[in-house]
Amino acid sequence: MRVFEKGMRSPDGLLDVGGEWLSLGGVDLQINGALGLAFPEVNLENNHKIPEISKLLWEQGVDGFLPTIVTTSVENIQRSLSIFADASAQQNDKASAQILGVHLEGPFLNYQKRGAHPAEYLLPLTIDNVKRILGDYASIVKVITLAPELDDGEAIEYLRSLGIIISLGHSQATETQAQRAFKTGATMVTHAFNAMPSLHHREPGLLGAAIVHPDVMCGLIADGQHVSPTMIQMLLCASDYEKGIFLVSDALSPLGLPDGIYPWDTRQIEVKNGTARLPDGTLSGTTLPLLVGVQNLVKWGICQIEDAIALATIAPRRAIGLLKEPSKRDRQKNNETSPYLSQPAHQLLRWHLDEATKELTWQRLFPNA
Predict the structure, then answer these.
(1) Does residue 268 lie within any of the structural domains?
(2) Residue 93 designated active-site
């Protein structure tokens, strides 16, 4: 399927972009904060920053995002869900990234693979605890990251009955445990390679099971620190690019701010060159915009431009069911369905490759629309 066009129809006629690339804007399914606001700490005193963050993300080429709430207290989670539910209902600015729901990353994580998540707030994965966490706000939760080996046998099915997408992560799951979760309805993996067992030729584990499953998509942080470019290239080849992988920023609250030392829950993180670490060196995320990952893949020479762009635009939409897929009739006729059909032109990005520097840049097709 061709996903990038040289021109497209508008009410004013045909648009000519000179052989460059057009794409939808990005969709970020894992972003933890920006402009100094960590999403788990949102409250009635600082929620005025949410529209500012949505505007910043739009300016960074992002059309929609899932504010991600990492492991914290039940009270913090429910307060954050309440505020984002209200913010989502009040969105009316076309030139702002839209809240598409919330991503709960925790608290049902494996202690051994918790990474930067605070151990004191981890919970067993039971239906009672799920109900306790969600409270009255299940409808705003789009994705939940959990460790499937913690499941009591019913929690994943219960979450799916609520329409929540299950992403496996921060996990020690074996191949068999992961396969069981996929059979139950899990369809995503959170930040591939990070906070999970490494791939092994005799013990493929969670990631190996995900790579070979046709209905599972893996999130990927393409900053060059969380995963090496060589392993990224291997993962992309094995997963058929945007059919099995989507980019995330995993950006923390200093997104939009310079490198430095910043508070993070009760701890501190140090940001250097867009990568954030705890004082003990544990990776905790990035402060790089989503589309920098696209530019990195092209700069490293491991991805065709069309594929790199699709990983941040088409793939995340597919992962959460937003992509207009070809109908059965179209597939039978071998027709291609463009994801641009019925899309507002102001949401499109125009990409340019500088042949001299090989630098990939983008701009809104109609920045003042």
Answers:
(1) yes
(2) no
